[in-house]
Design a protein that fits this description.
Strand order of the largest sheet: 2-1-3-4
Structural class: alpha+beta
Number of strands: 4
Shape: globular
Oligomer: single chain
Length: 87
């Protein structure tokens, strides 16, 4: 079973919006707070092809990207099929 992971910081409004969409869809996700641990941000940056901004969202091995990417994928009808593999 695939997992959903979201790298966040506590005060990031985009992180909150992304989590709201995942919550609305009933998705369980693993939240990784990179705000207090530089090594976690470093591993996120490596995994996200150099992107340092949060959130960075992964569904299984698929890098969805950030909040705007998540909402765009949802509007295009591509998020639900991806999440079905992760549910």
């Amino acid at each position: 079973m695939m997992t959903v992971e979201i790298y966040t910081t506590r005060t990031c409004p985009f992180c909150i919006r992304a989590k709201q969409l995942l919550d609305q869809k009933g998705v369980n996700y693993n939240e990784i707070d990179v705000g207090t641990d530089p090594s976690l941000r470093s591993s996120m940056t490596q995994r996200a092809n150099g992107k340092r901004t949060v959130p960075q969202i992964f569904v299984g091995s698929t890098h969805v990207g950030g909040c705007d990417d998540l909402y765009a994928m949802d509007r295009a009808g591509k998020l639900d099929p991806l999440l079905k593999g992760a549910a």
